[in-house]
Specification:
The protein is of the alpha/beta class. Helix content is 42%, strand content 14%. It has two domains: 6-69, no CATH class; 107-265, Nucleotidyltransferase, domain 5. The relative contact order is 0.14. Residues 100-263 form the Integrase catalytic domain.
């Protein structure tokens, strides 16, 4: 129709496009966001982070730009878990995988994971609010005991200004079934719920958080010291995860922004 040879048209398609100041600025911003994520963000996360910062960027354009810049996300594949159905004799599974709640401070989840520091293991206990997936309490120790889990819970309780009618859900680890931890729950007037034994899907949001922090932030061979690990994890929780990292559960918004919008509406 336009009397253009197909070979000429194909050459035009492959011709490098002119680099403008706007493209350079956009690529610079994408590199900055990727760096803030410690090299973990994929195109969906980059797109949401850019949009949240006031720059409208589709996932397709984010993926093309990342390919051009050689930025590769290090997100892992989904893990496989065994299934089990044994509830705790004294504490039932009250949550029953109802992970979508309508307000902050209705349901908190907790769990403990291990972290390599130099020549031994350290342990991280966290408390997560299911509404926004925000980390509301955390603690580190060299022992995975009830003192560690109680410290994380009390931090959450104080930080959230002592809320009432909260349910706390966890697995059946001894640091959650112990007398000391259950006394801490009683003192805070928090109802307890527990996953079925060996069923990781009953506490899936916590499993997802630990997978995120280990693949997105932690060094492959661990930290050199306890203080280095504590500082790095604090930066991840307060400086990146809650403040900057968009969450699919929050429709691309960060945990802090999600809670801010909730309290603004109420």
């Amino acid at each position: 129709m336009f009397e253009v040879y197909s070979s000429s048209f194909k050459y035009w398609l492959k011709k490098p496009k002119r680099i403008t100041a706007e493209i350079v600025e956009l690529h610079s911003k994408i590199r900055e966001m990727f760096s803030l994520s410690n090299g973990s963000a994929g195109s969906r996360t980059i797109s949401s982070m850019m949009t949240n910062s006031g720059i409208d960027l589709s996932r397709y354009k984010a993926r093309k730009a990342m390919q051009h810049l050689g930025l590769v996300s290090r997100q892992p594949s989904a893990p496989k878990y065994k299934k089990a159905n044994n509830e705790h004799l004294a504490v039932p599974n009250l949550l029953n995988r109802q992970f979508d709640v309508i307000a902050p401070n209705e349901v908190w989840c907790g769990d403990v994971t291990y972290i390599w520091i130099g020549k031994r293991w350290a342990y991280l206990a966290v408390v997560l609010d299911l509404y926004s997936r925000n980390l509301v309490g955390w603690a580190m120790s060299l022992s995975p005991d009830s003192q560690l889990t109680s410290k994380a819970l009390l931090q959450a309780y104080e930080l959230r200004e002592k809320p009432k009618d909260v349910m706390f859900h966890s697995d059946q680890g001894i640091h959650y079934t112990s007398k000391k931890f259950r006394q801490t729950l009683w003192q805070c007037q928090i109802k307890q719920s527990m996953s079925r034994r060996g069923n990781c899907w009953d506490n899936a949001p916590m499993e997802r958080f630990f997978m995120s922090i280990k693949t997105e932030w932690m060094p492959k061979f661990g930290y050199t010291s306890f203080s280095e690990a504590e500082h790095s994890i604090s930066n991840y929780i307060a400086g990146y995860y809650s403040l900057l990292r968009p969450h699919q559960h929050n429709n691309g918004k960060t945990p802090n922004e999600t809670e801010k919008l909730f309290f603004k509406a109420t």
